[in-house]
Write a structure and sequence with these properties.
The chain has helices spanning 2-5, 20-25, 49-60, 73-80, 97-106, 120-130, 146-164, and strands at residues 10-12, 30-33, 64-68, 86-88, 113-117, 133-137. The chain is α/β, with parallel strands linked by helices. It has a six-stranded parallel sheet, sandwiched between helices. Helix 3 links the parallel strand 2 (30-33) and strand 3 (64-68). It is globular, with a radius of gyration of 15 Å. Pfam families: Hydrolase. It comes from Brevibacillus reuszeri.
């Protein structure tokens, strides 16, 4: 069923609520993460000190990170290069290509990798289609670009339906 492909494995308020020690216990060696409204606001060019600290903690835990973004090279490179983070831009999520490219580049398996993002129809759907553990985060910003606003309307419909059917074990903020 299509809606099951939209169901994240996990839901947290932000990347900072992801238990890094639990990831290690679960033998996670890599993270594929979205950029805009997952790590920082879509219009914030650089990482915040909190995001930099989170990335440092992942590095200390020996968990690799690759940013996979539908945004353009200029935007993603500007964010990732100062942090020395690998990235794939213009990813065309939810298609498989960028997700598979990321695991190949990190030399890990899908079972050793989690996908983190703020959108059901790009991050969660893309990750679930390939069998990744997916983590949905609350968007960092309340504003979005044009296409993301359209996706958010569809997400609300899907999430409301999932809640009514008892498919979600977490409660969304209004």
């Amino acid at each position: 069923m299509f809606l099951k492909k939209l169901m994240p494995s996990q839901f947290v308020d932000s990347i900072h609520h992801i238990d890094i020690d639990q990831l290690k216990r679960n033998k996670v060696r890599a993270i594929i993460t979205d950029l805009d409204n997952t790590l920082v606001e879509w219009d914030r060019p650089l990482a915040t000190p909190e995001v930099e600290n989170w990335l440092k903690r992942l590095q200390e835990a020996e968990i690799q990170v690759t940013v996979v973004s539908n945004n353009n090279k200029e935007r993603v490179d500007r964010f990732c290069s100062p942090l020395d983070i690998e990235f794939i831009c213009s990813a065309r999520k939810p298609t498989n290509r960028a997700f598979l490219q990321a695991v190949r580049q990190m030399n890990v398996t899908i079972a050793e990798t989690v996908v983190i993002g703020d959108q059901l129809f790009t991050d969660v759907l893309g990750g679930n289609r390939l069998g990744f553990h997916t983590i949905l985060v609350v968007p960092v910003a309340q504003t979005d670009g044009f296409w993301t606003r359209f996706n958010r309307q569809l997400e609300r419909v899907a999430l409301n339906w999932m809640e009514r059917k008892g498919m979600v074990s977490w409660r969304r903020k209004a």
